[in-house]
Amino acid sequence: MANVEYINPFISASKRVMKDFCNIDTEMGKPYLTKTVFEGDKFVILVGITGQLTGQVILSMSNDTACNIASHMMMGMPVPELNDMAASAVSELANMILGNTATIFSTQGIIIDITPPSILVGKDMTITVSDSKTICVPLTYEGDHALELNIAIKSKE
Questions:
Q1: According to the 3-state scheme, what is the secondary structure of 88-136?
Q2: If you average pLDDT over every residue of the chain, what do you get?
């Protein structure tokens, strides 16, 4: 199971990227173990982790939150529907979050690489992760918007 030293870089990078690129201040909810079941209409981004740590990070949010984040990334331009441009913007946000996470790990002497983001959009999805427990860290903002970091990583040792 991932220990706190492995989870904190993901949280720090997520909060920083959301602030710097979206001008969104997030609040962290209580982390919990999850089975990566996504109920309702969801926008999900899957990024693989390789190197000294292995696994995946799944960023999940409602379609409404994905549109809201895309709007913030595009300087407030209205994004009424989850179109290709909005999906691409939020996918790039995930790429920035995981790139920043990799940089934080490198300063700790832990070298990781990330895979290109894969986007999943659908209703009532279950994603099975291999042999790691998944810790969900909810980041909320503007009252009812939530970005969930579902982190399933382990040391390659």
A1: HHHHHHHHHHHHHHHHHHHHCCCCEEECCCEEEEEEEEECCCCCCCEEE
A2: 92
